[in-house]
Amino acid sequence: MKTKPRGAGTLACRVETHLGPCFAGTTSDAQDRRSRDVPSQSRDRKGAVARKGTTSALLALAFLISAPAFCRAQDRMAEALRKGIVEEDANHNLDAAIQSYQSVLAQYGEDRKSAATALFRIAECYRKQGKTREAIAAYSRVVRDFADQTKLADQSRNQLSKTYKIPQQPAAGPVDAATAEARRRYRALLEEEIQEFQHNVDFVQQQYRLGAISVLDTYDVQADLARLKSRLAAFDAGLIPPAPPCARTPAALAACAQYRALLQAEIDYATKDLDAEQQKYKLGLDPFQYVVDAERKLADAKLAMAALDGGLAQPPAAAPARQAQ
Length: 325
Prior knowledge:
The chain is an all-alpha fold. The chain contains eleven helices and no strands.
């Protein structure tokens, strides 16, 4: 007499629980015969139930297919957070700890608790290193961007008040996930533009050393870089105030939608303009300054869009650059 493999019944129950009976295996011949004997109305009713079960099973299957990737991301974040804590508390390697915590921030998605914890630990590492500016910026980000994580926000607020003598501000209202994500993108965009303009500064300084341009031609690009860095510092310090919400009247909502559409059109045209200027520069038709001007226009448009999505006051546009002679 053949016996059923140990655990087979349990596995079948689990499959049926998660995916519905249609994925748990075939029915027995006796069940098939009974189904053929039921009246037509009963079969229709059972058919509808079966179709509903199939739909639910397919949805469950889609969830189970995507769940491993989500779990892997969660595991990577937990491992990076654990590694950072070990580096900070056991090995006292604060630079390595900061690097691990920053990797959590780079991939946190919607796991705001892990992101807030990583950011708070970064602030603590900077405090231990005596890096006052960086610590204040990180604590301020916890207070501003993760106000819903009340314990960490309160601890950050206390550090700002007691350690750095920054007046304690009342707790801000919770920021919804979409706004928080938009503000994260705003900051990431600032960092990206800073890197881009740092490359521009390096290039024009090299051209100056080669005697291809005068020192006066390097000032505009250096001013652009300083402007972006100051904007990032202002954001981290909480100096960029939230923008007033759009009025809920139909006319105001239509105007807000039009403003966003125009910003997107500006980004699209500025992108095309930058591509054209880069081609002209490569062909020797335009000076590099024209490329920088196009990059500045595109950066301003992107930052304006990111500020709009993040509910932040619009930054002032850069002054028009001098035309190259």
